[in-house]
Amino acid sequence: MEIIGYTAAVLIGISLGLIGGGGSILTVPVLVYLFGVDAFMATEYSLFVVGISSLVGSVSYLKKGLINFKVALIFGIPSVISIFLTRKYILPLIPEEILQMHNFTITRNIFLLLVFAGLMILASYKMIKSNSSKETLENIQDENNFFLAAGQGSLVGVLTGLVGAGGGFMIIPALVNLLRIPMKIAIGTSLAIISLNSLIGFFSSVNHMKIEWKLLISITVIAIAGIIIGSQLSKRIDGKKLKPAFGWFILIMGIYIITKEIFL
After folding, report:
1. pTM
2. Interval 72-91: pLDDT, tens
3. Whether 39 contacts 30, CB under 8 Å
4. What angle do CA 191, 250, 76 make, to 5 degrees?
5. How far is 259 from 264, CA to CA, in rounded Å?
6. How many C-beta neighbours within 10 Å does residue 71 have?
């Protein structure tokens, strides 16, 4: 299973490099089902893998001037605050056993995986549906759009803190549709935001967890290799054309997680 897991880690990186998001939503299921990591711990590991991979991926976009730092701050600061509060105060409040119904018990691990599966289904819908965002170099100065982007940044922060997903599938549509950021700059900016969010989320709670660094670093290195491959492929392949197919794959994965955790 580990060989399959490392192969999946490459795909996580390729997705991040090619379309600026989506790959991170696979990290927790890969850690849980292919590497046997506890779901709660997997959210922590995911933050590190996604954070480092996105940081490496954002370098090539930075060199090309494809990162809008002003937008990254508008979106990133509320995200970081939400992540810190979620990891520090909300996650520890979730009990080991949340609900018991007859012979079925919803544990913290099952709850996190079900939340994650719901997030995957939402992400798949957005990826399958969003295939026609026009590129433009025009920046909208409407303050309402900036407030909406900051609000969405807060929401992304809560989700990132809760389940360890980078939230690129929410960040990119917000940058393109609310702030009219061109797609390539949106991808580069998304990677910068994801790396900032994920690494701050990881280091804000790492002291309270026993990390298996050998496994974590090996997965991260392979994901980095994938993101370098994805960044190179992005020069030849339009990532937007691959989004619907990737969305269908994530939808199947989300349904599988719900089925496995509830019915199997």
Report:
1. 0.82
2. 888 889 988 998 888 888 88
3. no
4. 25
5. 7
6. 24
Residues 145/179, Cβ–Cβ less than 8 Å:
yes
Rounded Cα distance between 133 and 117, Å, is 26
For 101, residues 6+ apart whose C-beta sits below 8 A from its C-beta are none
Residues belonging to the chain: 264
| Residue 104 phi, psi dihedral angles, 5° rounding | -110, 125
CA distance 255 to 111: 15
Give ∠ CA 40-228-257 in degrees, rounded to 5.
Answer: 30
Picking from 154, 240, 225, 205, the residue whose alpha carbon sits closest to that of residue 48 is: 205
Q: Give the C-alpha separation, 77 to 151, whole Å.
A: 11
pLDDT, tens only, 113-141: 898 888 888 878 877 876 544 444 444 44
Query: In this structure, what token pair is assigned to residue 91?
Result: 């996650």
CA dihedral over 74, 76, 81, 82, signed as positive or negative: positive
Amino acid identity of residue 38, one-letter, is: D
DSSP H/E element including 176: none
